[in-house]
Amino acid sequence: MDEEIEIINTATRKEKIKNFLINNKKSIITVIIILLLMLFSFFFYKDYQKRNSQDLADKYNIAIIQYESGDKSKILDIMKNIIEQKDKTYSPLAFYFLIDNQMIDSNDEINSYFDLLINELGLEDEIKNLTIYKKGLFNSDFADENKLLEILNPVIKSKSMWKPQALYLMAEYYYAKNENQKSKEFFNQILTLENVNSKIKLEAQKRLRADFSE
Questions:
Q1: Which pairs from 163-166 meet CB under 8 Å and 24+ separation?
Q2: Who's near 175: CB < 8 A, 6+ residues apart?
Q3: Which of 11, 66, 120, 164 is deepest in the core (most CB within 10 A)?
Q4: Strand blocks (E) in 41-127
Q5: Separation between Cα atoms, residue 118 and residue 192, nearest integer Å
């Protein structure tokens, strides 16, 4: 008896599955097609990224070779084009090459490229924070207090490994402007941090003893 009931239940389940497949055939086919398209798109995109990255690598390396051989006529345009491709690897390399070789004269243009790296590349957090710090370092020679704080605050208010460097930069900025109390406050903030780089902590202590001891 139990065996017969089991046979009936099994047949019923198979019939239900069969009816479900028949009644929902169009929906099932649609879902399968969508999944296949998504899978195809994913592999196509990965392949495109790989080929695009290789193309940028070739352009970057050729530009470096041309620069070192003395042919600098097209370097600026090539490097700017690489930056604007928004590649995580080669856009920063091209930008810092132009900065290191002083090939961009406009501070506004440099800051616009910094913003592109920070906001549009999807960099890992600490690489992004390093880029913010570098932007602050660049602007520290000419920016006013509010602008420099606006740039560095995302790092200063975080738990980033670059926070001590950002605090030290602000401390030096205020010291250069003879705003000693503000400078002292930023140096002291470095000493309160946990797991701070020992070299930066030591430098902050030296500055406090040498320039702010009473």
A1: 163/193, 164/190, 164/193, 164/196, 164/197, 164/200, 164/201, 165/133, 165/200, 166/132, 166/133, 166/136
A2: 183, 207, 211
A3: 164
A4: none
A5: 28
Contacts of 22 (CB under 8 A, 6+ apart): none
How far apart are alpha carbons 130 and 126 in whole angstroms? 6
What is the identity of the amino acid at 124? E
Triad 134, 135, 136: Cα angle to 5°:
90
Contact 115, 134 (CB under 8 A): no
Report residue 87 CA to chain centroid gap. Answer: 10
Residue 180's closest CA among 208, 148, 139? Answer: 208
pTM: 0.76
How far does Cα 30 stand from its chain's mean position? 38
Tell me the CA end-to-end span of the chain in Å, nearest whole number. 99
Please list the alpha-helical segments (H only) found in the chain: 2-23, 25-68, 75-84, 90-100, 107-120, 125-139, 145-156, 163-176, 180-192, 198-211
pLDDT for the residue numbered 5: 60
Q: Which of 71-75, 125-129, 154-158, 181-185 has the lowest mean pLDDT?
A: 71-75
Q: What is the pLDDT of residues 21-69, one digit of tens each?
A: 677 666 666 666 666 566 655 554 454 455 667 888 889 998 898 888 8
